[in-house]
């Protein structure tokens, strides 16, 4: 199973990759810097991707736009999807679940490695 | 609590939460009265705009050495292993701090959206000021062996719903009108 990490910060992508590795998972990690790149990667790898971690504020195509797109396409809507963003307001969290009712979870930055691991481990262990 | 007190509290709490979580160090935050100015060799500045009920710009400024130290702490590597491009990672530090500020101020009615951070690197000194008459908050933050300066210019969006640029254009027209009247009287 591949993991798609979408964040315009290469630091954040690297950090998430490190946390996944240190948790003992050696899944291939695909990295995208915005929603458009993510669509390309998802289109090619959708049958192998088993987890998506996506930032909200990104250039070109935001995480919210990408999330909305994923929710509308049955082939990819069932892929476990976590929003990972610094915006933790109730309004934003509500908006995310409205856009994608099957959203697996909403992770607010900053997070500790343990906090991220606890959220994604059940998906990776399936 | 005044807006200034609310913003100051939100900023300090957000910086503390961000640094204790991502680098496991409790920061020391001090008020900084003067215009921010870094004179070391090589600086990194990141800015992020806010727009909504509260509007303005937020900056953080690091020496290149401090930027490398904080990124290496986040990634758990030696600062020497970092490339110069890695320094852009401090943009994410500002993004996290700004998100925390937004989360804290929204319940008080100050809702705003965040822009994507912009990054500037200079080999010389750098000073930052605001052209507009905005409130400002300047803080010096030290965190183990690295430090940075935080600066926020902000104002409440007017009740007329006009943006700062629209008000600027209006003020410019008012100034032109005043000048015209002055010279008409004179001449």
Summarize the structure.
The complex is a heterodimer of chains A (126) and B (187). Chain A contains six helices and five strands; from the N terminus they run E-H-E-H-E-H-H-E-H-E-H. By secondary structure, chain A is an alpha/beta fold.
Question: If you had to describe this structure to a student in words, what would you say it looks like?
Answer:
The complex is a heterodimer of chains A (126) and B (187). Chain A has a single domain (2-125), classed as Rossmann fold, CATH 3.40.50.2300. Chain A is 48% helix and 19% strand. Chain A is built from six helices and five strands; from the N terminus they run βαβαβααβαβα. A five-stranded parallel β-sheet of chain A has the order 2-1-3-4-5, sandwiched between helices. In chain A, helix 1 (10-22) links the parallel strand 1 (2-6) and strand 2. The longest helix of chain A has 13 residues, at 10-22. Chain A is globular and about 30 Å long. Chain B has 187 residues and is of the alpha+beta class. Chain B has four helices and nine strands; from the N terminus they run αββββααβββββα. In chain B, strands 1, 3, 4, 5, 6, 8 and 9 form a seven-stranded antiparallel β-sheet that branches. In chain B, strands 2-7 form a two-stranded antiparallel ribbon. In chain B, a hairpin with a 1-residue loop joins strand 3 and strand 4 (54-63). The longest helix of chain B has 23 residues, at 164-186. The termini of chain B are far apart. The model of chain B has no long low-confidence stretch (mean pLDDT 85).
């Amino acid at each position: 199973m591949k993991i798609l990490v979408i964040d315009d910060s290469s630091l954040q992508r690297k950090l998430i990759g490190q946390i996944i590795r240190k948790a003992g998972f050696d899944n291939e990690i695909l990295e995208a810097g915005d929603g458009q790149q993510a669509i390309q990667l998802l289109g090619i790898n959708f049958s192998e991707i088993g987890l998506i971690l996506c930032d909200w504020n990104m250039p070109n195509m935001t995480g919210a736009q990408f999330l909305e797109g994923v929710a509308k396409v049955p082939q990819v809507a069932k892929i476990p999807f976590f929003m990972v963003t610094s915006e933790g307001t109730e309004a934003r969290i509500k908006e995310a679940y409205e856009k994608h009712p099957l959203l697996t979870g909403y992770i607010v930055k900053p997070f500790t490695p343990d906090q991220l691991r606890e959220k994604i481990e059940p998906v990776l262990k399936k | 609590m005044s807006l200034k007190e609310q913003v100051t509290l939100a900023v300090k709490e957000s910086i503390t939460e961000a640094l204790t979580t991502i680098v496991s160090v409790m920061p020391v935050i001090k008020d900084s009265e003067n215009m921010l100015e870094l004179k070391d060799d090589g600086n990194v500045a990141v800015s992020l705009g806010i727009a909504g009920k509260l509007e303005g710009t937020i900056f953080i400024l690091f020496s290149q050495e401090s930027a490398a130290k904080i990124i290496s702490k986040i990634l758990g590597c030696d600062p020497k292993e970092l490339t110069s491009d890695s320094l852009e990672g401090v943009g994410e530090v500002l993004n996290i701090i700004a998100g925390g500020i937004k989360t804290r101020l929204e319940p008080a009615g100050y809702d705003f959206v965040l822009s994507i951070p912009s990054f500037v690197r200079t080999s010389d000194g750098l000073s930052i000021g605001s052209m507009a008459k905005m409130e400002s908050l300047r803080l010096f933050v030290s965190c183990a062996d690295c430090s940075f300066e935080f600066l926020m210019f902000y104002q409440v969006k007017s009740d007329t719903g006009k943006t700062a640029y629209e008000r600027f254009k209006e003020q410019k027209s008012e100034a032109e009108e005043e000048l015209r009247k002055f010279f008409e009287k004179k001449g």
